[in-house]
């Protein structure tokens, strides 16, 4: 993933978001089994564009984990509320031997996440693209 992101035009750098509760960590609330938890997306990427520096959230995700779908739902809600502050909000997972990406910035993807009963089916659907 890092190699692919570094090749994107205008790439400046990346930040490995801490996976623990520290002031330097971006945390996104999500609900799992009636309890609120914090998703800490793995990476923030910074890119120079004609309009200045933009930030992308890219979170590698395991579909086999029990909290996979609740985390996607939390990320989708975050994108509904704050998506305009980021150029990309994406979740990446391996499906059928390939890295697949869900563009959480797309309303159709967020709507599918809201209706989904499992995470893997989202990554194997036409809503996901191969990660490049």
In short:
The protein has 132 residues and is α+β, with helices and mostly antiparallel strands.
* Low-confidence regions: none
Structural class by sheet pairing and helices:
alpha+beta
Mean pLDDT: 95
DSSP, total strands: 8
Overall outline? globular
Terminal CA distance reads: 8 Å
Question: What is the spatial order of strands in the main beta sheet?
Answer: 1-4-5-6-7-8
Oligomer: single chain
Tally of separate helices: 4
Specify the helix fraction band.
25-40%
Most strands sheet: 6 strands, mixed
Order of helices and strands: HEEEEEHEEHHE
Rg calc: 14 Å
Can you walk through the features of this model?
With about 130 residues, the chain is of the alpha+beta class. The chain contains four helices and eight strands. It has helices at about 1-5, 70-80, 105-115, 120-125; strands at about 10-15, 30, 35-40, 45-50, 50-60, 90-95, 100-105, 130. The strands form two sheets. Strands 1-4-5-6-7-8 form a six-stranded mixed sheet. It has a two-stranded antiparallel sheet with strand order 2-3. α2 (about 70-80) runs antiparallel to α3 (about 105-115).
């Amino acid at each position: 993933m890092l190699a692919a992101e570094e090749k994107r035009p205008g790439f400046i750098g990346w930040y490995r978001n801490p996976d623990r509760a520290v002031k330097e960590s971006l945390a996104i609330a999500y609900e799992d089994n009636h309890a609120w938890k914090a998703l800490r997306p793995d990476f923030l990427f910074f890119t120079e564009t004609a309009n200045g520096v933009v930030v992308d959230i890219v979170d590698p995700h395991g579909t086999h984990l029990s909290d996979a779908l609740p985390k996607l739902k939390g990320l989708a809600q975050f994108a509904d509320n704050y998506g305009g502050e980021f150029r990309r909000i994406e979740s990446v997972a391996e499906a059928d031997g390939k890295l697949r990406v869900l563009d959480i910035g797309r309303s159709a993807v967020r709507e599918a996440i809201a209706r989904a009963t499992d995470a893997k089916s989202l990554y194997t659907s036409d809503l996901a693209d191969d990660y490049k």
